[in-house]
Amino acid sequence: MESVARGGTRWKRFAVVMVPSVAATAAVGVALAQGALAASFSVSGQQAKVSVDRLDGKGFVQYGTIDVQHGGKEIPVAVSAFKSAELRGLCQSVVIPVPVFGDVSVKLNAGNDGKVVEAKNLYIDLDQLDADATFTNINIGVSANDTDNETGPGLKPGDTVLPGSFAQEADEALLTDVKQTSWATSAGTFKLSGLSLNVAKGKNECF
Fold this sequence. Notes:
Blueprint: H1 11-33, E1 39-42, E2 48-68, E3 74-98, E4 102-110, E5 117-136, E6 139-143, E7 166-191, E8 196-201
Antiparallel strand pairs: 1-7, 2-3, 2-7, 3-4, 3-5, 4-8, 5-7, 6-7
C-alpha cells in the first residue's frame, strides 16, 4: 500500500520521481565543488535563472545559434562564452513541476563570503540578460565562424551558425549585477567554492 500524507500526497510516487534527480544533482555538486569534473547544466524544456554579483571574464565571444531541446523544439539563443571566468555571488535556480506534488525548486549558490567560482571554457546559452557591462578591446560585428582560440574559446562543440552571421568578441569582459535566463550552461571545468544546494517545495528562485 502506498503511504499517503495529509492532503493526499502519494509520497512513494513522489520519491520515485524526485530522489534519483536530487541525488544526482547533489553528487555532481560535490564533485564540482572539489573541481573533479567538467560541468554541464541543462533542463529539458525549462529555463534556469542565474544571477551573479560580479563576473570577470577573459577571452569573450558571443554569437547566436539554435538550441534543440528533447522532442525537437528549437529555441533561438545567444551564447556567451569565456576562455576563463571568475564569478562572485553566483546563484542558479530551476523550478521543476512534479506531477501531483507541484513545483519543486533546486537552487545552487556559490562564490560568497569572499570565495570565488572559477570556470574554464564557459558557455552560457541565454535568451535574456540584464547587467552592467564593460568590455576591453571589443570587436562588434565579426562573423561567428571567425571566433576562435586567438580571442575566445570559439564555438561550442555541436553549435552551428549561418555563414557570416553576427557575433562579437573582446579580450576582457566585466559584468556586474547580472540577471539572466538560460537554457544551458557548460564548462570545461567549473569549481564552485562555498557550494550550497537547496531543494524546496514551491518556487524559490534567484530573482
